Amino acid sequence: LIMNDTCQTQITIEGAKLLFRNFKGEESQFNRKGARNFCVELTPEMAAELIDCGWNIKTRKAREDDPDDVPASYMKVIVNFDGPHPPKIVMLTKHGKTALDEETVGTLDWAEIQKCDLVFSAYQYEVGGKTGIAAYLKTMFVTVLEDDLEEKYADWGVED
Prior knowledge:
Layout lengths: L9 E4 L4 E5 L14 E6 L1 H9 L5 E3 L11 E7 L9 E6 L2 E5 L12 E15 L2 E15 L3 H5 L8
Parallel strand pairs: 5-9, 6-9
Antiparallel strand pairs: 1-8, 2-3, 3-5, 4-5, 6-7, 8-9
């Protein structure tokens, strides 16, 4: 599988909707221990373009119990701190910016995300006879909503 010349090797999504967050790398039915990742929802146009370029795009069925729900296309994005270029992940709150690393990025698993802008890069792989294109997070800026107490005590130091 070779991406053609019209295919982008870096994709930017502003206002991204994140699904199935596992920044901490917790083991689950769908995830091996230590594998940090999340999924990002795609517009139908972006999904079609990425499928044409060989990316692995999945579609979530509409929920039967919600008449307003519609099918949605999404893709998995890998968060890898082990390589030579770890991702730059910045959490934004009313009180400033915080750079997140592999020890602190897990806080995003349950954060109430107001806005997320991200860039991911293509990586062509061949494993066990299978080929494809995986998305690796490069840069992410996440604006997190704070509740009343988080705002009230934001300027207080935290003691261990």
